[in-house]
Write a structure and sequence with these properties.
This protein is an alpha/beta fold. Strands 6-5-4-1-10 form a five-stranded parallel beta sheet. It has a three-stranded parallel beta sheet with strand order 7-8-9, with helices on one face. Helix 5 links the parallel strand 7 and strand 8. The structure holds zinc ion. The site of zinc ion (ZN) has 5 residues, from strand 4.
Length: 263
Amino acid sequence: MTQPRGRLYLLYHELRHHRSDYSYVVETGEFEKHIDLFLKVRDTEGSELWPEVTFDDGHISNFEFGVPVLQSRAIKARFFITVGWTGQRRDYMGWQELRELLQAGQLIGAHGWSHALLTHCNASELHRELVDARLTLEHKLGIPITTMSLPGGRYNRRILTACHEAGYTQIFTSIPRAEPDPAADTIGRLNIRGDMSLEWIAKLLQPGSNLLSGLERQYQVKAAAKSLLGDRLYEKVWALLNRQETETDMRKAAASEDSAHHQ
Ligand SMILES: [Zn+2]
C-alpha cells in the first residue's frame, strides 16, 4: 500500500523580474521553474510530498507575474490578503484584482487587517484583524472566507481559539512541515526565500530527504528563543548575530526591510 502523501505548502510573498537582495522576493523566472518542479514532483510515483502554492500579503506582483504562470499550468494557489491594505496601499492588489483572481479559479484567504502580529493584539485589535478582515472579504467578494494565514507566523493557544471563534476553520502557520491530513486545523508552510536554489528545493522534495525535518527543528529552536526572550530582545540578538554578514549598504537595507516586515 502506498503511504498518503504529505501536502507541503510553499509560501511566497513578492515576485520581481530581477533578482533582489530582499529575501522575500523571488525572481519571476525562478518562480516559473519552481512551479514546473512542483508539477513534476506531483506526477512522480514514489514522491512523498504534494507541493501546494500560497502567497501572503496580497502584493500586486502576485497578480501581475504569478497568476499568468499558475493559469498557464492550471495550478490553483491560495492568496492570503492583508485586508486593510487592499486598494489602499501602493503595490498591493485592489478589489478588482481580487475579483479577477477568483474568476480565474484561484483561492483567497485572510492575512489579518493590518499585518499586526496577532500575539501582540488585545481583544478589540484581534476582532479587527480576524472578524473585520473576514467579513470585509466576504462582503466585497461574495464568497465564504474560512482560511487565515498568520502574519509573521506568530500564534499561541489564545490566537488559535480567537481564529476559530472568528469563523476560520484552517489556520496556515509558518512552521516548515508537511501536512498529511488535508482537513487539519493548523497547516505548516515552508517560506521560500529568494536565495534558495532550485536544486536545493528539488533535493528537499526528493523521497527520503531529511532537509524539511531539519528546517522544522531549526524553526522550533528559533520560536523557543523568541518566546523566551520576547520579540524585541530576540530581534536585538538576531541583529547582533547577523552583523558581520551585513557588509554592503544594500544588504543592510535588505535586512532592515526584512526585520520590519516578517522576522
Ligand atoms: Zn505577511
